[in-house]
Amino acid sequence: MKSLLQSLFVCALLVLTVCPAALAQDLENTLYLDLASGRVVIEMRPDLAPRHVARIKELARMKFYDGIVFHRVIDGFMAQTGDPTGTGRGGSGMTLPAEFSNAPFQRGTVGMARASDPDSADSQFFICFAPAPFLDGQYTVWGQVVSGMEFVDQIKKGTGQNGMVSNPDKIISLRVAADAQ
């Protein structure tokens, strides 16, 4: 019996190591963010931000994010993407009302970028490299990286105070896991 349990434990570890997506229980609320360096698995949080999650899934299914650059990347803070113009001023054309929560911005937290108006989030989002408690309760948290953060860490960093990137890294594809083949 002990040998059987040990074998099952080893098999479970292998599955989780070889197939990070196995960590995600709900494929409809999981995203695969493919970068040149590897796959990032994001668990979406419809319990915190149902409208934001629905819009991100809608845009992902339209392949909106494919080829979009990480236009603003600040070392030790975050990597921002989702602007089809690559300037930091563009979006999909549909703004969302804020869905602030008590969820903290930690390493791997995915949040919506916005202008000074709390209800101005559109398609731009960011992934935190490190905890950012100064964002807590002021930006919408809609996801968490559960696998592949080492690939996020490799995204080319910007220069200067605003972190704009010349020759930026791109999203290869962003897919809802339930739709991925």
TrEMBL record:
Residue ranges constituting the PPIase cyclophilin-type domain according to the UniProt record: 38-179
Catalytic activity of the protein: [protein]-peptidylproline (omega=180) = [protein]-peptidylproline (omega=0)
EC number: 5.2.1.8
InterPro entries, per database record: Cyclophilin-like_dom_sf, Cyclophilin-type_PPIase_dom, Cyclophilin_A-like
Signal sequence coordinates: 1-24
Keyword DNA-binding assigned: no
Keywords: Isomerase, Rotamase, Signal
Family assignment from sequence similarity: Belongs to the cyclophilin-type PPIase family.
Name of the protein in question: Peptidyl-prolyl cis-trans isomerase
